[in-house]
Amino acid sequence: MKLIISALVCFTLFFQIISCNQPSQNAVYQEVKTDLTPQRDSTQYVFWKNLKEICGNSYEGKITAGGENDTMFAGKRLVMHVRSCKESQIKIPFFVGQDSSRTWVLNLRNDNLQLKHDHRYSTGRPEELTMYGGHTLNFGASTRQIFPADQQTADMLPPAIGNVWWIDLVPNKYFSYNLRRVNTDRVFTVTFDLTQTVQNPGKPWGWDFVID
């Protein structure tokens, strides 16, 4: 009996020594945890700064992918207006002919960039499907930021759970807005020429009711 007790004591002491020498799960997590707060020299800040550089300007664009058999955009003048630029939010109305229902809303948050789609009727009232979008999962590149669909979008529009949006911004060359649905061939790209500005359009629908 004494031998059994002694063995148990030794085993317990051995286990405690091993445990003390192993890092806890929290310690391991702390070691590998990455601070995702954007830094002033990060690619996200460069992207954000470059976008703010064209604030106030409007540019004409064209469908460069996904325009086959399109009826919504075909034959219509496409214009983006980088209309409102605050420290942590940029609003870009997207005009399709006389339809000014769409505004891309980009938000600079503590650990990512967020893209939302603000859709409104001509009366200014929000459409039933609005403010869907996603947020970045990493710093991306200074010329490209990618926005996989977020949970709000999945809850609001389940078929869009596989949506991935991205924006390409090459200063003094082009800006492109892109959409692709994962595991499908569906892709949509509209590219705007940044080498020349066009006359700014009027206020998008609903902006009389929304604080810029």
Tell me what the structure shows.
This protein has 212 residues and is an alpha+beta fold. Helix content is 21%, strand content 33%. It is built from 4 helices and 11 strands, in the order αααββββββββαβββ. The longest helix is centred in the first third of the chain and has 20 residues, at 2-21. It is globular and about 40 Å long.
List keywords for this structure.
alpha+beta; disordered N terminus; 11-stranded antiparallel beta sheet; 4 helices; 212 residues
Evaluate the radius of gyration.
25 Å
The percent range for helix content is 10-25%
Distance between the termini: 81 Å
Overall structural class, as computed from helix and strand content, comes to: alpha+beta
Q: What general outline do the C-alpha atoms trace?
A: globular
Order of helices and strands: HHHEEEEEEEEHEEE
Give the strand content.
25-35%
Note the topology.
Blueprint: H1 2-21, H2 25-32, H3 43-53, E1 58-65, E2 78-81, E3 84-85, E4 89-96, E5 99-108, E6 113-119, E7 132-135, E8 144-148, H4 151-156, E9 163-170, E10 174-181, E11 187-193
